[in-house]
Structures are given as structure tokens and as C-alpha cells.
Amino acid sequence: MTIGIVGAGQLGRMMALAGYPLGLDFLFLDRAGNSPGGQVAPILCGELDDPRLLATLARRSDVVTVDWENVSVAALRRLGPPGTVAPPLRALAVAQDRLAEKRLFARLGIPSTRHAAVDSRRALERAVRTIGLPGVLKTRRFGYDGKGQYVLRSADDLGSAWTQLGGAPLLYEEHVPFDFEVSIIGARSSRGEIVSYPLNANLHRGGILRLTRAPAGSPRLQRTARVFLEKVLGHFRYVGVLTIEFFVRRGQLIANEIAPRVHNSGHWTLEGAETSQFENHLRAILGLPLGSTRPRGHAAMINLIGRMPPRERFLAEPGVHWHDYGKEARPERKLGHCTIVEASAAARDRRARRLLLAIDPQTRIMGR
To answer: Which domains are assigned to the chain?
Structure first.
């Protein structure tokens, strides 16, 4: 069987590498032939919404999936009936619009931030008066890794925030003084089977994920997050892997956003779980039995950003797993990651702190 993947970044690459032991083949569509996925499987080069190339991808594939959510839903809709593309296009459409995400959370009874749609300078002023300061002004579409955001701390920030972001549909939301951030990753198969992974504790700097540790959080948080995850999966009759990111404030979960795809905070599952998120995504979209998500220990994942450190130093560390995506170095670009798995959370955190200090000394481990 052949899986077509729209987008050939590192997520697509890891899907292909997870699928080869299952006897699967892969075909990518991406703008660049030297992208991470294109280094491990054939690639169609061109725009991701090119009707001709998408038709070729669909014709040569048994099912089509994506390695990021900001792809043209309209273009994918032309590929065929439901089931041709996974995850469901309704989920992709919601994830592409932050206001639609907030409305989804409200409809499903999942706590989220207070917010308001903003389409003018006057609407921004009204939102700030209603919701208060500090707050965050965000583009409703095409925001990731901290892009398309402006933190307003005083009324004096309104002008510069509007100047920077005012050309697109916006969302203003309260700034949450959270204690830490977590995400839950789960999969639902075309047969309706659902599995979920332990909560991930995530540490960001500059809007980019730097460190993930799992399992994390209390059993109560895990149960609550799973309930919320299953609500979203059921709402969409979802097929594939989906992630919900949360703020944790005073022991309560506050939903931030969904990601209808395999997720950066789940990279630890490659070595740290019995079945990785990448394999379970493939199993889900093909209607195969889902694999166990049981952790093999206490895992940490550190993103390698901007430049690759000398691998010899880290490969000399027992138990360090090194992943190089084969990308050209660029400031703030995710170039790879490394993972460790330890027998206890304390041992994991000690090693993660030491490795992170060597790789990314500006980021400090805090929180849970």
C-alpha cells in the first residue's frame, strides 16, 4: 500500500520511516525536492495546492494524509469522497482558524481563554476594554511557532500591535499566567478505536518548543485531558493522530489549540513508547489495530534548533537517540531532536537539564 503525504517536512519523514517496517510505501508532494521527506521517499515537486499534482498523488496512493495543517482544504476536497484524505477535512479547517478552534472548545464544553474576533482598530480597542490587559493579539490563520502574535501589556501597545498584524483577520485573547504547558496526543482509527499517550509537559522559548517530558502531570489531569481529547475525536469522527495543547493554571486545564496531525511534543514516542505516534497515525488511517501507547520509561525530547551541535559529543552519552532531519541550518529552524529514556522522572530530569544546558543554555527547565 502507498501513503501519499502532502508536505515533506520532518513529520512526513518520520511517518515514512515508521511505515517501512509495516510494508508500506510513500509518495510526497512538496515544494522542495531536498526536503526531509524527499530524502527517504519519492517526491512530486510543486505547490501543495496544485490540482494536477494532487490528482497524481491521490491516483498513486491508497490514502492521502498531511504533515502539517495549513494546507488548502478546498484543494484536498477535490481529491474524492470522505476517507480519501485523513484526517477529516472539517478538522483541518477548524485548526486553520483560531476563532473556529475557540468556538469548537465552547461547543464541546472544553475550558479555553476569553477571546474576541478583531477586524478593525476599533474592534481591537473594544476587545481590550472587555477582556482586559495583558492580552495577546493573534492572526486567525497561518500562525505557528509563535509567529503572527503580539503581546499587549498596556494601552500604549495597541498602535504597534495593529500596525504589525492589522492586515489579516485577528483574534484577541486574555494572557494566561499559566504554571506550565501540556499536550495530549491520541489516535482514532477508521474503525472507531481510540488510544492516547501520557500527558507531555512542554517548555517553549520564543514561541518554539524546546523540551518535552513525558509522562507528566497528575492522574487527574491525565483523565481530564483524555476526556477532552475524546470529545474532539468523536465530534469530527476523526481518523488519525490529533493533539490538544493546554495551559495548566492552578491545577486546571485551559485549551489553547488543536493540531490535527502528528506533533512535535510526541517525538519522544519513537523511543519512549511501545508504538510511536507516527506508526499509530498510519495504523489509524489504514484501519489497522492501534498499537499500545504504554511508555517504556520516563522520556525527554530536546529540539535542536538553529544549528546542529556536534553529534559526537552527544552520541557518546549512553542512551541518547539522535535525529538529524537533513535540513539547512537557519536561525530558529527545527533541524533535529534528541531523546532519552530513564527509569525514573528524577533521573530523566537530571539528564535533560544537563543536555539542554549544553544544547540550548538560554532555556531553563522549570515547572512540572
So the answer is: 2-85 (3.40.50.20), 114-174 (3.30.1490.20), 180-359 (3.30.470.20)
Average pLDDT value over all residues in the chain:
95
Cβ atoms within 10 Å, residue 326: 15
Bridge partners, residue 299, by sequence? 214, 341
Please give the grid coordinates belonging to residue 130: 472587555
The dihedral of CA 342, 344, 345, 348: what is its sign?
negative
For residue 36, the tally of other CB atoms under 10 A from its CB is 24
Which residue, among 274, 80, 287, has the nearest Cα to 193 in the 3D structure? Answer: 287
CA 247 to chain centre: 15
> Residue 367 above 50 pLDDT?
no
Answer yes or no: are the C-beta atoms of 280 and 197 closer than 8 Å.
no
Distance between CA 204 and CA 92 in Å, rounded?
A: 24
Quick check: 217 and 199 in contact, CB under 8 A?
yes
Which grid coordinates belong to 127?
476587545
For the entire predicted model, the pTM comes to: 0.95
- Residue 291 cell numbers, joined: 498499537
Instruction: Give the confidence band of 77 by pLDDT, cuts at 50, 70, 90.
Output: very high
pLDDT (tens digit, 9 = 90+) per residue, 83-126? 789 999 999 999 999 999 999 999 999 999 999 999 999 999 99
Q: Determine which helix (DSSP H) or strand (DSSP E) holds 195, and give its type and residue range.
A: strand 194-196
Render 249-275 in DSSP notation, one character per residue.
Answer: ETTEEEEEEEESS--GGGTTHHHHBSS
DSSP codes joined into one string, 156-181: GGHHHHHHHHTTS-EEEEEPP--SEE
Q: Between β-strands 2-6 and 25-30, what pairing exists: parallel, antiparallel or unpaired?
A: parallel
Beta strand 149-152 pairing with 170-174:
unpaired
**Given a cut of 90, is residue 240 above it in pLDDT?**
yes
Among 260, 259, 221, 255, smallest CA distance to 114 is for: 255
Between the CA atoms of 113, 119, 123 and 124, what dihedral angle is there, to the nearest 10 degrees?
60
Widest pairwise Cα distance in the chain: 59
Mean pLDDT, residues 13-35 taken together: 97
Q: How far apart are CA 79 and CA 86, in angstroms?
A: 12
The answer to whether residue 204 scores a pLDDT higher than 70 is: yes
